[in-house]
Design brief:
Layout: H1 2-37, H2 47-50, H3 52-55, H4 57-68, H5 70-75, H6 79-82, H7 88-102, H8 115-128, H9 132-139, H10 143-165, H11 172-186, E1 191-201, E2 220-227, E3 233-241, H12 246-251, H13 254-262, E4 267-268, E5 275-276, E6 279-281, E7 292-293, H14 305-331, H15 343-362, H16 364-370, E8 378-380, E9 385-387, H17 391-394, E10 400-402, H18 413-426, H19 435-439
Parallel strand pairs: 1-6, 6-7
Antiparallel strand pairs: 1-2, 1-10, 2-3, 4-5, 8-9
Subcellular location: Nucleus
GO molecular function: hydrolase activity; metal ion binding; nuclease activity
Family: Belongs to the HARBI1 family.
Length: 444
Amino acid sequence: MERRRRAFNATSNYYHNRNKKLSVAFFVFLLGYFHSHFPDRNVWVKHWVARRKKQGLHHNLFLELMLEDPQKYRRFPLSCYRCLRMSTAMFEELLSKVSPIIQRKDTHLRESISPAERLSVTLRHLATGESQESLQMSFRIGQSTISGIIKDTVRAIYKVLKDDFLRFPSSAEEWKAVAQDIYERWNFPNCMGAMDGKHFLIDCPIKSGSMFYNYKSTFSIVLLAVVDAQLRFIFIDVGTNGRACDRGIWNSSDLKSYVENYALPRAPLPNSDIMFPYVIVGDEGFTLSEHVMIPYSKGSLANRRDRKIFNYRLSRFRRCSENAFGILVTRFQIFRSAMRYDPDVAKDVILATLALHNWLRTDTVGRSMYSPPQSLDSEDVITGRIIDGNWRDRHEGRGVMRLANQGGNHHAASALELRNVLCEYFNGIGAVPWQDRMIGVPAE
């Protein structure tokens, strides 16, 4: 019996010691694995990041100017929003709006990044298109933190500006005010705005297949928008995946549904008793309808002075949408190449830039800095010449593409008749003195 007991104890001790050795060996293996696959985190903040307040762009440049050139410091717009032509006062105003949303609490381990620096990083990214990898070195902020800052701040910008500067007309009175401004400024009656659309390119989203794959063999989301007389976006439909056929984009858009179901009732054209519907103007890529006016095709203009007059009058206002999109893409150079964001974040970026655009176009000082007169198309009615805005010199980029043809060669007879009525009006009661010079044809 005693022999059995000693044998049992010896066996138990053997397996116990072996298990201990295996456990130790497995633990050593785990230590080696984690050491080889995961970097050591000896400090909470990397040393080069910890020197942000002494050597980072936001703090260091401002400090130098404050000490060496106080006058320049007081009027100097941050490099991150110089490209937007935004004044220091407007930066401070925007900062006061977004600070309550983007402010973060300090912790025992580290001090939070200030709202001013968060806004600076974001505006620099939007205005210059500078990559997050480059921003982390300039501002001495980790890339993952940079990414979170940009995502949070663009949402905050849209949130604080949308109600005042990206609010769409919702009543008949507001739409009539828009139409009146268009008529007084651009001589186009019964008009609710100028329409255009663009593909905004993005990197291929993970596991999206061909959902965002567009006709140019790239990946994109679509912005369809209406612009008012002041080059502000007053109706937007953003986020449609680039795979949708371009005609389908218009047919399925909220904009088309709104125009057809909530359009203003017909009203007389100025100085006449001709009852005419309120319309949106677009280029030949859209379908002519009762509420969408497009130019006559080039093939139908031969020896037709009246149609050339109509096309001039329509394109005169339609250039507002071209200029609005052109200024947007020129000032916000993040759109000069494909955005490296998933579709939801890319949509947030577009919404933030639209809100900023409208805000800057609404403020008198901001408008003159953000989009000075020479940046926009203009007319010399004496010589009959159209002068291109300088945004056209810098507009071409790889980040934005125009929509393909939305319409077709066949239009409803009622829509064709309405266009002819407006054409006759522009060549009669509704004529403007300089229109003949602008088409290069002597007045009859």
